Amino acid sequence: MSNTRGKETSILLVAQVIFIVLFGLFVDYGERAGPASHGDHNSTSEVAGEELTFDQFYPMYQDVHVMMLIGFGFLMTFLKRHGFGSVSFNFLLTCYVIEWSTLVNGWFGMIGGSTNKIHLDVESLLHADFAAATVLISFGAILGVASPVQLIIMATIEVVVYNVSIYVGVEIFKAVDVGGSIFIHAFGAYFGLAVARMLYKKAQTEHTKEGSIYHSDIFAMIGTIFLWLYWPSFNAGPAVGNERHRAVINTVLSLSACTVVTFAISSVIDKKGKLNMVHIQNATLAGGVAMGASADLLTHPFGALLIGSSAAVVSTLGYQYLQPILQKRIKLHDTCGVHNLHGMPGILGAIVSAITISAANMDAYQASFSIFNWTVPQQAGYQIAAMAVALGIAIVSGALTGLLLKAPIWDNLTTEELYEDEVFWDCDEEPQLSQSEKLENGTS
Amino acid sequence: MSNTRGKETSILLVAQVIFIVLFGLFVDYGERAGPASHGDHNSTSEVAGEELTFDQFYPMYQDVHVMMLIGFGFLMTFLKRHGFGSVSFNFLLTCYVIEWSTLVNGWFGMIGGSTNKIHLDVESLLHADFAAATVLISFGAILGVASPVQLIIMATIEVVVYNVSIYVGVEIFKAVDVGGSIFIHAFGAYFGLAVARMLYKKAQTEHTKEGSIYHSDIFAMIGTIFLWLYWPSFNAGPAVGNERHRAVINTVLSLSACTVVTFAISSVIDKKGKLNMVHIQNATLAGGVAMGASADLLTHPFGALLIGSSAAVVSTLGYQYLQPILQKRIKLHDTCGVHNLHGMPGILGAIVSAITISAANMDAYQASFSIFNWTVPQQAGYQIAAMAVALGIAIVSGALTGLLLKAPIWDNLTTEELYEDEVFWDCDEEPQLSQSEKLENGTS
Amino acid sequence: MSNTRGKETSILLVAQVIFIVLFGLFVDYGERAGPASHGDHNSTSEVAGEELTFDQFYPMYQDVHVMMLIGFGFLMTFLKRHGFGSVSFNFLLTCYVIEWSTLVNGWFGMIGGSTNKIHLDVESLLHADFAAATVLISFGAILGVASPVQLIIMATIEVVVYNVSIYVGVEIFKAVDVGGSIFIHAFGAYFGLAVARMLYKKAQTEHTKEGSIYHSDIFAMIGTIFLWLYWPSFNAGPAVGNERHRAVINTVLSLSACTVVTFAISSVIDKKGKLNMVHIQNATLAGGVAMGASADLLTHPFGALLIGSSAAVVSTLGYQYLQPILQKRIKLHDTCGVHNLHGMPGILGAIVSAITISAANMDAYQASFSIFNWTVPQQAGYQIAAMAVALGIAIVSGALTGLLLKAPIWDNLTTEELYEDEVFWDCDEEPQLSQSEKLENGTS
């Protein structure tokens, strides 16, 4: 760790200089943010209803922005001695990815086009946040076990492969996934899990610092609740007109049902019959993940409740039973349980979208039928194909990234440095660990 | 308590299955969220100015949503050993009521109509949150003294009688109450107080765990501030045009004056002359409650300040003097003091609306006169009548509900289980209570 | 301190009565909130694109509102024993200033006009929040060293001189400063620093209570993140059309770069090579301050990154090196380091705006050229002139205010009362200070 200072500083400063240069070469304001038409920006939209104005995008953009920094950031503060790192590295990663993904998203958007400039508007800012969400999900799998340098390396690679996955899934397969069940949640989770598998250390299991204390669990609820509240904006943000309205309704219903069912299941599977904050903090959100790919489809309100209820079952059982098995059998340590919150519910979302689409027909969908890009059976098939490709890319590229991060040059953490803010932060006080715990941990 | 597991799980799972079936039978997307008109949803509004579009509703809806889960949820975390229960049962109740009130609100809306389907849009989601607010206010009166099963039973009943009260007050009496002083705040408070009176136990008085600690009071301020900030959206949400704009201005002014006056009074009535966090957390919000029924009326800015100032006086004195008296004399234990924050300020709001309306005339109100449904004196009278009916329904139905909840089959709490997360949550640590406090409490 | 009760109560009650009277005399609803035109408020805007409707203002207004109470309020809770005072006096000051600045802003707006009424709409509420921001920045400089009475006196004076500074800078010099780098951030900082210099006590240096503990630093991050998230609304709120859109983009980019560079620098300048929460909580925001005066100009995206990166350098180095020097050499104690977050980055913002304007020309700016009120070189010069006048007014009036506050009649604090909630709040518990610390402090 003696070189932490230099590496973290160097990599960030070099990256920032490169970003400034690349932004100078490639990035400018979009038409509605540029100098040309002073006056009412609403009037610049020629195809009313197909394109969203600044006023229609901005409130949803800000909701998603809150999800990134307050939502993900505080959700991760449940660890008793990693509150600084959780909320702050989440902050750093988001900012880094906003810059980097603006470039990468833009370059991928140029493919086949005639422009060589990236034109920014509030929609591109929203898509930068979606890239950030993907990286932050992966971060959750290795929370407390990676240095800032490792996280930045990971983010740099992940933003590129995330765009590859979207290029194949959306541009070629033309899958529909308005809320990112496939391309954000499942992709981010399995990429992160593959990294986590590579970074696995035996000492992670039953580490004394990998737990919450009473008030760190309350801090985490700030994250949970803001994610829950603004998830409708996440799922509806890219949609327009009635589709957008429907995506909001579906997501609110799915999340509500998911929360009720999570409370139902959490206590019945507990040894003492009590509720478990891990479930409440996480599984209540699975309804948002699973609804993502179908949010603008006609699942109908009862369908949205059914999807949310199913997601709660999958996610809660995942936390209680599957996660310990995966850790024991395949040495997969998943700090935040992203497999249960984003991985499996993301796959569920893809499957649900294929089923929902299979039931679609022109009579019921009317104008909304234009959501689809293929015949109904083809579209359903491509949903599954896109999911398979996304998972494949995520797992392979995540594993390779994990291998790269194992190279002992990225401020890698030792066993006793896991889940501990003191490693990277000026904070001596350790009020929550007893002396015996410290000793126990120091010698492991 | 041996059967907690089974009952909480069973009631929630059964309810969720019933909700899915009933949603399948009765609920579908509203016109603007349905498949018909792809394209700009704004253009579907035929009566511009009388009906709000998705874009006009959604930001205010999200503000109200934040009030429900962050506002109410964190305000209640002031208890030192009930943080999990406060924020989480608040979360569960909100989700449960969103589903249940969508049905009940919809059924009441069908009365006299020709449709037998409930059509969802963002406005119906807003009204589901209003029903949730009513239940959460009642929850505040019995915070820490009821099991989740009892809370769910209470919510199920309350949503129905809440709709009865609105049917009489709004459909028949045609009272105006844009921000719910009467039908949300006063109703929710007196319903909850009636329940609390029935559940009263002697041990609640001076219970060692019914108090705050330093950082739980700071968590509570997160709730207070978000309630304060988004209250203008609560009071203005259902209004349109200039009325909506005016409701925002009136509410901001009322809340600001209320906060200043609360700070003025809090220290002068304290024995040591110091400020009291209970007042700052709660009475600062009374200006929002009292402004509710008059928010879209021409109170004029000075009137809004006067209303907010009066609410601060009523609420602060209520916390300081009336609450201990009620506890001693009529055995009314009110954990969050909802009588002082929602009950009395709600009644004040109804009276203020009657006075404001009495001073109204066509010359001053111009087009805004269409707010009223009767002649001026009639409208003023119906405001008071609606309040009386709401209070009557609340107190009677609340008392009956409380009686029902006393039946020893709903995971009722024993004395030593009051205000304690350990009863329902996996959390052993008790860092904030000394050994002596534990002993003292355990034997009471 | 024996008279605290009386003074704080008296001053607030007298002020509130005066406000009610003055509102009755001077303030009424604006046209769009008044009774006249019932119906679609959007249609009342005659000059589409030049004037913003309620719907365009309200979401940004609410974002700024959150910045005032959650942002500033929680950012200041980093102090271990001043959490109540930080969040609550911030709350009181904001409410007091909303009322007082509505009057003062309105009176200044009348100069040269023909009306003698102040007409309220959501835009005037936004400007009341801007006045509040200025006062809250000054509050940061004297956090924990001033009584509520002193704070109210300070706010009363500052709102007036703030308006004088804007009158000279904007009405006469016609400087452009959409996000308030000059008139809000630099002004508020130097006013507060001048007050702080006057209130300086030797005992402030190395006071045992002037520090954070682990979880108070996490509370503070709630403030940081919400300020960061909603800063684009602060900088873009007063702008229209493409300028508003551009201000959002520029601010998001500037803040992102600022955060990355702050993380880069924080660890390299630390003795142990570790990250410092003070930097992460504060310097990450300097990019929003420095972008303010140029947010609606054509800095281009790379320019926004450059501005944010520069602000991070200035601010972080300020916290690390300049602040201790200023304290030692000129006895300037700055509790929150507002000089580093608002003062120097505000000056940087003014300089950046002059440079950006110097490079402007009609070809590039097209319709956006109408932002400027003079020829390009003149406009650049007036930017600097306005900054100089703002700083001059701030420092002189701040020093005089500080002198006034030193009069021993405003509940002035003794040395042992600094940074301590117990002075003004009902809270006996002191879990975070050891007995030896208390003794040490009590005798200083």
- Can you tell me the CATH architecture of chain A? Orthogonal Bundle
Indicate the radius of gyration of chain A in whole angstroms: 22 Å
Sheet with most strands of chain A: 2 strands, parallel
**First CA to last CA of chain A: what distance?**
18 Å
Which homologous superfamily in CATH is the superfamily of chain A? Ammonium transporter AmtB like domains
- DSSP, total strands of chain A: 2
Subcellular location (chains A, B, C): Membrane
Main location (chains A, B, C): membrane
Family (chains A, B, C): Belongs to the ammonium transporter (TC 2.A.49) family. Rh subfamily.
Transmembrane segments (chains A, B, C): 12-30, 60-79, 91-112, 124-144, 151-170, 182-200, 212-231, 251-269, 343-362, 382-405
How is this structure best described in words?
Three copies of one chain form a homotrimer. In chain A, helix 2 packs antiparallel against helix 7. The C terminus of chain A is likely disordered. In chain A, 66% of the residues lie in helices and 1% in strands. Chain A has a single domain, classed as Ammonium transporter AmtB like domains (Ammonium transporter fold). With 444 residues, chain A is an all-alpha fold. Chain A has 15 helices and two strands. The first copy, chain A, starts with a helix and ends with a helix. In chain A, strands 1-2 form a two-stranded parallel sheet. Chains in contact: A-B, A-C, B-C.
